[in-house]
Amino acid sequence: MTGRSSLLAGLALALALTACRREERRFSEPQVLVARRERAVAPPSSEPVAAFVDNAWSVSEGQRLFGWYNCAGCHSLAGGGGMGPPLRDATWIYGGSPEEIHRTIVEGRPNGMPEFGSRVPDYQIWQLVAYVLSLSGRLRQDVEPGRPEAIALGQPPAMTYEKKPVPANKGTHP
Amino acid sequence: MRLLRKGIFMLCGVALACHRRPPPAPPAQAGSTVLRDARVHQAAPSRVNGEWTKVAGDDQNTRYSPLAQIDAGNVARLDVAWSFKTGIERGHEAAPLVVGSMLYIVTPFPNRVHAFDLTHPGAPPRWTYQPPNEPRAQGVACCDVVNRGAAYDEGRVFFNTLDDHTIALDAATGKELWNTKLGDVNRGETMTMAPLVVQGRVLVGNSGGELGVRGWLTALDAATGAIVWRAYSTGPDEDVLIGSEFQPFYPQDRGKDLGATSWPPERWKLGGGTVWGFVSYDPELDLIFYGTGNPGPWNGEQRTGANKWTSGIFARRPETGHAVWFYQYSPHDVFDYDGVNESVLVDVDTAAGLRRLLFHADRNGYLYVLDRATGEVLSATAFGHITTSHGVDTKTGLIAYVPEKEPHVGATVHDICPASPGAKDWQPMAWSPKTHLLYIPHNNLCQDEEGMEANYVAGTPYVGAAVKMRAGPGGKRGEFAAWDPLAAKQVWHIEEEFPVWSGALATASNLVFYGTMDGRFKAVDAQSGKLLWQHQLDSGVIGQPVAFRAPDGKEYVAVLSGVGGWAGVIVPAKLDASDPTGALGFLNAMRDLPSRTKAGGTLYVFGLP
Prior knowledge:
The complex is a heterodimer. Chain A is 44% helix and 0% strand. By secondary structure, chain A is mainly alpha-helical. Chain A has a domain at 51-141: Cytochrome c-like domain (Cytochrome Bc1 Complex, Chain D, domain 2, Orthogonal Bundle). Classes of the chains: A mainly alpha, B mainly beta. At the A-B interface, helix 5 of A face strand 29 and strand 30 of B.
């Protein structure tokens, strides 16, 4: 519970700082990640998760992993959905906070979301969380990923990728 | 397709070296010339009592009803006699069954079975059966959580559940008689097809060709649910039930363990060839016929070789499951051209005597006429727009692919036609022994595709492709066509805005019924295609229409509405159309569907007032 509130506080802080940090695109591996890799254990819940996910490098890694672990096969490359629900929209069955998305990926969900906790290291799950958040325009725009692989496909106007407008407070969880 | 050519060449070499059984006697005439003077053999009507006891109406998969009360003169007055909301708003692909005074339906997941009593006005529900189920199955169903219908035999109703059970119910009471688990959702396996009962054996197959599932057809004892035999679509001969009876027509299909050796080592274990279409049965030849699904993954670079026995058709003995012949429509398929589409069995008289044929409209865009005793291709004619191949050589049985259209990792190939759902997907066609025409509901779609490396993670997609579909030439995404299979030409066609994803029904009064994804259920003239009647339903139609005579002596036509399936899943699953690659690329072609229909699930029964 305390972890949760500090997480939310972190998120709020990140959002507050967003305005003045737009130009600093952070592509370097964040310190949190480096530390986590070295320890190779789950982070204490008090770590600043928001700062971790709100990071261009995490998001682009998350995008790659979203393809590699076949999330894309069920949710589609840009999260439009298919076998699994869309992740680009404002509707969250299981909650859209970083912590809840993390839990969805680690434990799976009953109606067909497999658990990945036993097959994906935790730092990668956070990178996936970062990418999932970016799909619905929940991160600062300057950390959002490049166009997913699929968008390199043919470009007749009807087939081009539509970038979603970023809603102000979409999906924040009480 | 250099690799493929080489692969086939090598396989032939192997086959000739190690397998010296003489080929079957060559036919008197080769190729389609044999069909030139053929006449449809008038068989005795197989059903006279007005029931509809199998999804396709009969073992031959004709979807023809001998009833003729509803005709061109009165069809304009056809109206809803009664209806029933299933309460499940997903794709309803099933056919109702009518046996005696009961009508049965099976719903999409959670696969409820409802029985209605036709002896009472409004057909009150007699019983409902809800199987136990694993909700996880929903996440591994590639193309919505559909079910294509039940089967009936000797007082029992049989059906498959998405989570891989075949269940037998007492048709009178709905009591469960047996329940056999056949597959594993954790490996991505599901079951969506309608069983066929032959000689007391319930024939069922699996789905999951997009998840690295290994395909099979299994026969269960109708009385006990015990597994009698299982024939895999890939792997060594022993698993595929290939033995001394196996006499494929073409040399490329002869040889030992081709189901394993036409793959890179071990790849056949994740190779697909799932069996999710309809099964046909010829009691005189004592053969069952069914198609095998696409090889997995879609990315063909990960599985060089012909990938037997995927994307083809098996003829087997119903009693033992032993294979008698096989023909591969799409060797080393790289476009998701499953070979599962139904086979319609029709006999013709030729100068040389009776010839037993099989008609099959494949995903790859060709309408095949096969000799169903031998597996010889008599003709293969394009019925849709094709850019992926030049044609099929009926002498060698080989399709000539267009190498430039083969997707590769990191490169995008444009204008792949037909798109992955094929010129026609599962939606079954009808055959009228009166007009001698096939009525084909189908698609007009093309796609752009980029290959990607597929990574196998059990229970997750194993595809390796990014796809975007769109309308084919002319801009209409669907077509309903009347086709003369002996003359190998189209007789008339109706363009439709959306893929025609419903089944077709032909009746003895020369009416043909089908539905559209925007919810119109139509009756057209079987000779001319003229629209005679249509009725707007609550949701898009992707079910299989059937006709029956109720205890009141009147003819009725029944169909399930409920848009969904691969083509329509955007509606019930509320997919986000701003991602063109959603629903394995179908999303891009169906963006406007949510504005044209809504999710639903209703059984409609139409009759004359």
